Description:
Elements: H1 2-18, H2 21-28, H3 36-56, H4 63-79, H5 88-97, H6 101-127, H7 131-174, H8 179-201, H9 203-227, H10 234-248, H11 260-271, H12 276-313
Helix pairs in contact: 2-12, 3-4, 3-9, 3-12, 4-5, 4-12, 5-6, 6-7, 6-8, 6-9, 6-10, 7-8, 9-12, 10-11, 11-12
Amino acid sequence: MLAAVVITGGLAALIVLAVPSRDVAAALEGFDPLWLAPMLASYFATYVCRAARFRGLGVPLSLATLSGVSAIHQFMNRIMPLRTGELAFPVLVRRLCGTNLVEGLTLVLLVHLLDLAAVALAFLAALLAVPGARSAIGPVGTALVAASLPALLVGYLVLPSLGSRVAGRLALRLRDRRPRWAERLEHAATALASVRTVSRRAFVAAVVWTALQWLATFAFFWASLAAVGLSLGPADVIVGSSAAIVAGVAPVAGIGSFGTLEGGWAAGFVLVGLPAGAAVASALVMSGTSFGFALVLAGIAWIWLSRRRSSARDPR
């Protein structure tokens, strides 16, 4: 928590010192609230796509229920330190349908690998249309991003199988000395083997839902820029927001992701040619609205899921 406070405070101070506040205020004055509706629609669409992807990967819950789980999961990621919010998904699906915790955590890791692969692919494609950003990143940076793409996809296909084998071998070694640990590892190996089978069979569907999810995400980013009067092409939006996306998956983030998210966003859009004041203003709009949407949707989802569980326990 202390690290999050330091990061948020430090980056906020850096933004204030580096960017004149009058420039940011001038950009924020042009905010058009009519854009809130398309922003909310595109933001909510990302939850539905996440839910459909998890459903395709074998989580035995309805699309509506998984959308609610995704809402809570994403909000917890925004407020919990050290990415511990990721635990929300496996804990919730275990309560709702009995899915093994190891299986739930593995699914979260696999979809993150697909997410990063999608972002890397979109970023590389967008760089072709943004020469200034391409020259700033340089051939080495471009090559590193390109090399990450096959590595991420291989990780998706290989990780469950590798994890199952390692857990199985450890279970054999610990069977006599630590029977309880051996039993847990055997359960983990079985769960990972199940994930391996489902994830490979559902690979195409998972890729399609991942692509749709990021299409909705970039639409939200584009609408956030348009809300403050900034008109950018799809390639500029993808390149500019990529730094914010990478900052969003950092293991140590600011409070509510404030600081790291805005800093990455502002840096990315300055790279594609936006004035610093406008970049910071759009970062504040994007971050503030996404946090507000996440808070409201997670609250609604929590109330709805709690009532459903109560009704299931008491059919009267």
